[in-house]
Amino acid sequence: MDEPGVITDTGHIAVVRIFDTTLRDGEQSPGCSMTSAEKIDVARQLARLGVDIIEAGFPAASPDDLAAVQRIAKDIGAPDGPVICGLARCIAGDIDKAWDGVQAAAKPRIHTFISTSDIHLEHQFRMTRTQALERAVEMVTRAKGYCDDVEFSPMDAGRSDWEYVRDVLAAVIEAGATTLNIPDTVGYQMPDEYGAMMRWLIENTPGADTAIWSTHCHNDLGLAVANSLAGVKAGARQVEATVNGIGERAGNAALEEVVMALHTRKDFYDLRTNIDTTQIARTSRMVINYTGSYVQANKAVVGANAFAHESGIHQDGILKHKSTYEIMQPEDVGISQTELVLGKHSGRHALKVRLQEMGYEVNEEELQQIFKRFKELADKKKTVTDADLEALIADEFYGPEEIFSLDDIQVVCGRSGMPTATLRIIGPEGEEHVVAGIGTGPVDAAYSAIDKVVKAPVTLLEYRVNAITEGIDAQGEVTVRIRHDYNGHRRTFGGHGADTDIIVASAKAYMAALNRMLAYIGWKNHVPEGPAAAVQVSAMAMPWNNGQPAAEKEAEKEEADA
Fold first, then answer.
1. Interhelix angle for 386-397 vs 280-291, to 10°?
2. What is the mean pLDDT of each run of 10 residues along the chain (562 residues)?
3. pTM of the complete model
4. What are the structural domains of the chain?
5. Phi, psi of 266 (to 5 degrees)
């Protein structure tokens, strides 16, 4: 990986750095919050993917975010690994917290920002242009006192006066900024416009050749990837993106789309990235499972239909030569076309070899866990595909901490009578709860029974069912999103479950979402007498301050003071 400064040619093809902000900007997407442990897993996978910079979080936002950034910096920030970056507003306390978060990394970076658009300065920050410029220089200087690698972003640059942005960038370059990121914060610009702005700034900013220029584009008009590529064409050599394009509002530029555009059209861009593209599908899947945020079937690169062909003309062409209708090979992004992989007579060794071929390195204990689940699945299905194994691994290893677990379920339903579900649930201390619930259907009845044990007030926002493979014996995947409300503060959580029985998958998904919520609110710190009471107390004893987490309220106050 190149050092901060101007990207040098490697093999006569310049490198575009990939700055992944899934764990920061992506996690800000409603319902996409992750626990510290989940963030570590995603960070490890991002390192395998080969991203150059991981924006691990916003350390000043909360103690949990700070802890996650610190652990990522320590565990993933090796000398041969990615740069570990922490975000900070142009506020002294934020800069200090960002350094606390990333200082253990071999290659730490502080990324600080302040708005340059008159809309933001007048209505949000209550600052003049001169005050904002002075604050930017002051905080870049402060960050430079901690580490050499400092990134600066003029927020809402897309709606800012170009000459003012140039003046701010020239000043922060002199103060020590090594990366200049140009955000289209609200997804307002058109590709030609964004590209022209990037080119003008590079050509007209004093000291431009001493820094790396970066894109950060949002997708409000569906142009985040197009704008990012326009910025690259204009001279940017870093792209900020998220896996699956998750992020605020309509999301960010999708990492996989930017990478595969540069990979597939080397003839047009004459650029490359350091990404191992065969890890793209696996990374996408992990982010889906942890956030509960699915991608649509026709999503580019990682959607279910990205390499599917139904038209007779297309099928004929593909059978004769794949390049007739596929500009990328599914194997390029880690999608296998293997249909029948393993069956009920297969042994552990065959399973381990296939998992290795799919990119999963598992130890003996993990292999034993997954082999047990595999045998159960193989007894129910005639064929076990790679997609089945992916879902099984996701369900086994990518789920949240199991505070409550589903041990067994039995459902009675039909046109006559009342749908009833009886569940056996294991509590956090190993205690057994056998409960029954009645509902409008089998899923509603199962959820009603779960609510009797996990007494946490939530609202079900979304319930989604997908068949993983073809056939009547296909595994079903269920994704749910729930909302927890307390004193006006709302937080959404996702859950995922997979099983050949869709009711079982539904119960697993709902419990996964509830467990993720309980882990987030820190219920273990508020246990009076037993699990049910613990959940009730946790909802009332969270560290909220007038409906807000104390850390978030303090951060907002600091921003208001600014």
1. 50
2. 40 86 85 80 95 96 90 95 97 98 98 96 94 97 98 97 98 98 97 98 97 97 98 98 94 96 95 96 89 84 72 57 75 64 70 76 85 81 69 68 88 83 91 93 94 88 78 76 73 82 92 85 46 35 33 40 40
3. 0.69
4. 9-291 (3.20.20.70), 312-397 (no CATH), 405-540 (3.30.160.270)
5. -60, -30
